[in-house]
C-alpha cells in the first residue's frame, strides 16, 4: 500500500518556445531537461520552509563554487598533473549474478547491492528499494557529450526484478536519468522524490499517483516501509529554466526491523546528528565520498567528512556499516579514480568504523562480514600519488 502525501502534484509546464520550429526547440530543450514545477506543485514548492527569494536554500550558506576560482579550475581540469589518474588503468571487475532464478531473500533481513556511483538496491524487511538509478552511458542531457561510464552497469535493467520504491535524491544527471526512469515504469514501483522533482517525472510519463513528492522531514508509506526525506547540503537544476526550484534530500528508509540512510550528494553539515537522533540508529549508511574538491567544498563531502557524518548519524559512535558511494563510475572531479575509497578505508580504521567495499554488483548483508578485498588496487593507475587529507 502506498499512502500519498496530502498535496497533489500539478501538471508540468509545457515549453513555450513558439517562435522556433518544433525540431529546433527540441534540440535546444531536450526532454531530458525535464520540466519546471507549475500549478499546485509550484504552490507547494513556494510554501516550503526551504524556499526563499525564488529558490531552495540550504540550512547553511553554501557555495557551489568558490568565488574567483573558475580559471584555476579550468587549468587543473585541462593541464593538472593528476589528470591521467582520473580513470582506472584496467577494466573494473564486476560481480554478475548467474542467470536463472532470482536470489533468495536475505537471511538477515537486509541486503545491499552497489550498482555503481550512487545507485544501490536495498532489500529490506521483505521490500526492494532502488536508490538513484542511473543506467545511462553518460550523465548528461545529451548522448554524445558529458561524463561517460568508467565501467559497464553490472546488472541489466530488465533483470533488476520487482521493486516497491525508487528513491531519487535530487535531479542532477548522475542521479536522475530519464531513460532509466522510463524503463522503470514497468516495475510499478512508487517514485519517492524531493519537492519539485515530480515535474520531471510527470514530463517523462510517470503517473502522478505513483509519485511521492516530499519536503524535508516529510514521510510516505510504501507497503511496510517508511520513506523520509531528510536534509542535505547541495543544489539542484537540470536545464536552463529550472535551477533552484527543485529540492535535494538525503533519505531514511525504515522497515519493521532495519533502517538505512542514503546521503545523496551533500556537503558536510551539523544536520547529520539531528537526522540520527530522530531516525536512527542505522544498520547501514550509503555515504557520498567521491567527487569532492577544494573548488567546491560546500557541496560534496571528502571521505573524512563522510566518515564523520556516518558517526554523527549514530550519536558520535561507530555503529552500522558504511557503504561508500558516488565514486568509481563517472569522472566528476579532479582526484584520482581510487582516492575516495583509499581515504575512506584508511580513515575508518582509527575511528573503528566498519566499511564495506563490494565490487559493483556484488550483494552483501551488513549483519555479516563486510567485503573489503581491495579489488580496486590492481585496477588503479600505476604510480598514482594519492593526496592525504588537507594535502
TrEMBL record:
<dbReference type="InterPro" id="IPR036866">
    <property type="entry name" value="RibonucZ/Hydroxyglut_hydro"/>
</dbReference>
<dbReference type="InterPro" id="IPR001279">
    <property type="entry name" value="Metallo-B-lactamas"/>
</dbReference>
<feature type="domain" description="Metallo-beta-lactamase">
    <location>
        <begin position="127"/>
        <end position="327"/>
    </location>
</feature>
<protein>
    <submittedName>
        <fullName>MBL fold metallo-hydrolase</fullName>
    </submittedName>
</protein>
<dbReference type="Pfam" id="PF12706">
    <property type="entry name" value="Lactamase_B_2"/>
</dbReference>
